[in-house]
């Protein structure tokens, strides 16, 4: 074994067919051996051993080191094309630092002639110059539809390949376009900023319900990219300032939309939940001792009354004023604590945020390490312009008309992790309650809007068609009847009569 593993050459005896069958001719022996290469040799074992004594073995040299070498696999030739040209990783035009390539004076002059006609041409060329994926396309087309652009295939615009071969690139682009602007809307004044604010702050969160920050940026970056395209190509120079304002609105929405989604899902916080559980609100009487009436399909952990009392007491002791704490203790000892809901409002608008100071954090760490430190959130009355007006009596309505509507300011206690999601101008739709000790709390959060929240009627006009009177519908039916008189019916054509004869 040592000699074999050393890699040196060894001489081994090898018997030929001529040695085994000496009476055969050389040609026959070679052909026979060729035909029996794949057959078993056990049947000739005895004969081979007998004749092996009379024939001298032939020595063949075998290089064991060479036999151990494995054949190398041939490497596949890599494509010379970069990854950006292979399909999936191809640039989309929506990268963070992407800019359109410089244009020549001739191209600029040509674009001025094109864009001077209609905004529709700019939309078609923008879609042609960007690789818009399915999710991004859906967001972008909804934005166009919200702004009054008709989306979908054009009527009577289907062309086969033979017809397309006879058109130039400009005509093919117009023929294959999926967006168009109705003639009666082409002369209307455009407000890019209002459309952006209405779409991103009102329509987009409700229709798409973004689940993460990437989904929010998908919408804001796409719309901002389109607005930048309009500025770069000087499509509508008279709206330059308005487009700049719309781009700023996209930046604001990028920062605020995802905070709104998180605040809605994580709110209203421990303190407000505790007050709602103890004094009145959505969580009042939801918890049953020992959880005897728990829903097997609802795994939500409900706050017990004991925990709720602890949360409220430590919040008033750590973040409340001395007057609020003494008043609360006095009413609680006399079992006189009451809560009243603030009427004629839809929620509150955030005006200021006060985070817990170092002293408050130390107080919680020493005396209640299992609770979150409490800060304060200042707000004012908010009424949603997108909702119906408040139902008032004639006398109350007259007071509102003669003077300003009732207003108020609130001070809420809120945990630090939720305070980081708030910002001045945030609108929170919820019910607000006031304790008779001067403390306010809010209930379950229904919705949260941005600081640039704008309500438009554009979403109501999506898919709208101009109505027709019954007289017009009847007239059309009569006209169709008159035109059909004297024409062959389907039954007559199907009875075997030639078309030419019937006509």
- Quickly count the helices: 22
Uncertain runs: 1-9, 27-53, 480-486, 490-503
Oligomer class: single chain
Name the helicity range.
40-55%
Q: Give the mean pLDDT.
A: 75
Which properties best describe this structure?
Argonaute complex, subunit Arb1, alpha+beta, disordered N terminus, elongated, five-stranded antiparallel sheet
Topology:
Layout: H1 2-5, E1 9-14, H2 17-20, H3 26-35, H4 45-51, E2 58-63, H5 64-68, H6 105-115, H7 119-128, H8 134-146, E3 150-151, H9 161-165, H10 169-176, E4 179-180, H11 192-208, H12 213-232, H13 240-266, H14 270-279, H15 305-319, H16 322-333, E5 339-341, E6 347-354, H17 358-367, E7 374-382, H18 394-402, E8 409-415, H19 416-419, E9 427-429, E10 432-435, E11 440-442, E12 447-449, H20 470-484, H21 490-494, H22 499-502
Antiparallel strand pairs: 1-2, 3-4, 5-10, 6-7, 6-9, 7-8, 9-12, 10-11
Helix pairs in contact: 8-12, 11-13, 12-13, 14-15
């Amino acid at each position: 074994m040592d000699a074999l593993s050393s890699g040196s050459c060894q001489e081994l005896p090898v018997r030929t067919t001529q040695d085994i069958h000496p009476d055969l001719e050389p040609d026959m022996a070679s052909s026979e051996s060729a035909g029996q290469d794949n057959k078993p040799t056990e049947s000739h074992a005895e004969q081979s051993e007998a004749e092996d004594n009379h024939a001298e073995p032939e020595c063949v040299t075998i290089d064991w080191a060479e036999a151990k070498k494995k054949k190398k696999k041939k490497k596949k030739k890599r494509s010379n094309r970069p990854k950006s040209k292979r399909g999936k990783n191809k640039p989309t035009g929506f990268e963070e630092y992407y800019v359109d390539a410089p244009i020549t004076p001739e191209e600029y002059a040509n674009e001025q002639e094109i864009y001077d006609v209609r905004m529709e041409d700019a939309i078609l060329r923008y879609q042609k110059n960007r690789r818009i994926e399915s999710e991004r396309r859906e967001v972008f087309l909804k934005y166009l539809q919200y702004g009054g652009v008709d989306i979908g295939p054009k009527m009577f615009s289907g062309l086969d390949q033979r017809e397309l071969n006879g058109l130039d690139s400009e005509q093919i682009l117009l023929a294959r376009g999926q967006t168009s602007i109705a003639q009666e809307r082409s002369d209307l004044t455009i407000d890019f900023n209002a459309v952006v604010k209405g779409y991103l702050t009102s329509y987009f969160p409700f229709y798409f319900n973004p689940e993460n920050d990437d989904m929010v940026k998908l919408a804001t970056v796409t719309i901002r990219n389109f607005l930048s395209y309009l500025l770069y190509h000087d499509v509508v120079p008279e709206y330059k300032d308005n487009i700049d304002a719309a781009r700023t609105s996209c930046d604001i929405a990028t920062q605020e939309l995802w905070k709104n989604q998180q605040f809605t899902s994580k709110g209203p916080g421990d303190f407000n939940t505790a007050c709602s559980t103890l004094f009145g609100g959505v969580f009042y009487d939801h918890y049953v001792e020992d959880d005897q009436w728990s829903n097997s399909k609802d795994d939500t952990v409900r706050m017990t009354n004991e925990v709720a009392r602890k949360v409220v007491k430590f919040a008033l002791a750590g973040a409340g004023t001395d007057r609020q704490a003494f008043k609360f203790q006095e009413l609680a000892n006399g079992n006189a604590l009451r809560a009243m809901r603030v009427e004629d409002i839809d929620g509150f608008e955030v005006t200021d945020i006060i985070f817990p100071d170092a002293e408050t954090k130390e107080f919680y760490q020493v005396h209640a390490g299992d609770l979150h430190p409490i800060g304060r959130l200042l707000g004012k009355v908010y009424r949603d312009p997108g909702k119906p007006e408040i139902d008032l009596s004639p006398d109350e309505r007259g007071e509102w008309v003669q003077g300003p509507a009732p207003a108020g300011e609130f001070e809420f206690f809120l945990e630090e992790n939720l305070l980081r999601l708030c910002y001045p101008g945030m609108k929170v739709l919820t019910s607000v309650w006031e304790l008779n000790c001067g403390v306010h709390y809010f209930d379950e959060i229904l919705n949260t809007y941005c600081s640039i929240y704008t309500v438009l009627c554009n979403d109501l006009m999506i898919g709208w068609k101009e109505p027709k009177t019954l007289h017009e519908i009847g007239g059309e039916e009569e006209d169709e009847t008159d035109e059909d008189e004297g024409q062959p019916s389907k039954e007559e054509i199907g009875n075997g009569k030639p078309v030419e004869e019937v006509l």
